[in-house]
Each structure stands twice: as structure tokens, then as C-alpha cells.
Amino acid sequence: MYSFARVVKGGISFPGDIILDPFVGTGATCIAAKELGRNYIGIDLVPDFCVEAAKRISKTVFTGKVRLDELGDKKNTPGRSKSRQSNLQLS
Known about the structure:
The chain is of the alpha+beta class. Helices cover 31% and strands 9% of the residues.
């Protein structure tokens, strides 16, 4: 999500572009893409995450801006194993 936000802020992504999230989880990147008028493709190996992402995305509407505070914290997502959590810290 954070790298997508940086791309949008830097003016590299434009409405109508396609955003690919190969590890969709609960759909934060796809939600942000939809809010900003981008097309999106979300993929996850865990079917439960795909279902949850689809539910969250279906409730999202185009707003023209991203609400970072409401996208959720994947570290606290129930059912996410420790091996799938990222310890990457962004500067």
C-alpha cells in the first residue's frame, strides 16, 4: 500500500491505470486504487483473504483521495500467520 501511495503522490500513476496487488490480503491496495479511480487486480493464495477483500472493496466508492487511516493494519488481521507478516519499515 505504501509504495502505491508514493506512486500516486509522485504523479506516476493516473486515473484509469491498472494497479496489480499480488498479495491482496484484505484489499487495502485495491481499496486505495478504487478510491483514486484506478483499475485494480488483487491476487492471494488464501481464499478467505480474497473473500474478505471482495467484501471490503465492494463497500468502497471513488472519492479522489485515499484514507490511509481507514485501510487497516495487516499485522492485526485475524488468521494472518507470522510468516506472512512483513517487518519492513518504510522511511
